[in-house]
Amino acid sequence: MANEARVIKAYNNNVVDISKASLDTGARAILFRYHGGENQLFFVDQSIGWIISVFSRLALTADEQGKITQQRYCGLSRQQWVFEPVNDKFIIRLFENPVQCLTATNESEICLSSYTNSPNQLWLIQ
């Protein structure tokens, strides 16, 4: 799975997207309707635990406030994810604190929050 570009789709059929197709460190990861741009494609390696943007080559990283941004990968535990399978989807948990997981908060935002077993915390990786 690591060498193929993947789309990460939320419960509402929007996909993880780097805002404004930014190449900048610190740019936010958001949800957006699928359009097929490289800013919506990611290399996902479940064994290493990283999610790397195809477009920017930066890693999805949780900041101290729970926002998801892209940063240069340097092996921080805030850049490593645990992929817990649930049928054909995944709960994407933060390695540093597995109670925290990737959550779609509305139509366009992604953050970390405590796991609540809700559909907005399940992700389809295709």
Question: Can you summarize this structure?
Answer:
This protein is 0% helix and 42% strand. The chain has 126 residues and is mainly β. The chain has one domain (8-125): Trefoil (Acidic Fibroblast Growth Factor, subunit A), CATH 2.80.10.50.
Characterize the structure shown.
- This protein has 126 residues and is mainly beta.
- It has one domain: Trefoil (Acidic Fibroblast Growth Factor, subunit A) (Trefoil), CATH 2.80.10.50.
- 0% of the residues lie in helices and 42% in strands.
- The chain contains no helices and twelve strands.
- The protein has a four-stranded antiparallel beta sheet, with no helix packed on it. The protein has a two-stranded antiparallel sheet with strand order 1-12.
- Strand 4 and strand 5 form a beta hairpin.
- It is globular and about 35 Å long.
- The N and C termini lie close together (10 Å).
Task: Give the tags.
four-stranded antiparallel beta sheet, about 130 residues, mainly beta, Trefoil (Acidic Fibroblast Growth Factor, subunit A), single chain, two-stranded antiparallel ribbon, globular, 12 strands
CATH topology: Trefoil (Acidic Fibroblast Growth Factor, subunit A)
Please describe the biggest sheet, giving its number of strands, its sense, and whether it closes into a barrel: 4 strands, antiparallel
Q: Structural class of the helices, strands and pairings? A: mainly beta
Task: Give the count of structural domains.
Answer: 1
In the predicted model, the low-confidence regions spanning at least 5 consecutive residues are none
Organism: Entamoeba invadens IP1
Protein name: Ricin B lectin domain-containing protein
InterPro entries: Ricin_B-like_lectins, Ricin_B_lectin
Pfam families: Ricin_B_lectin (PF00652)
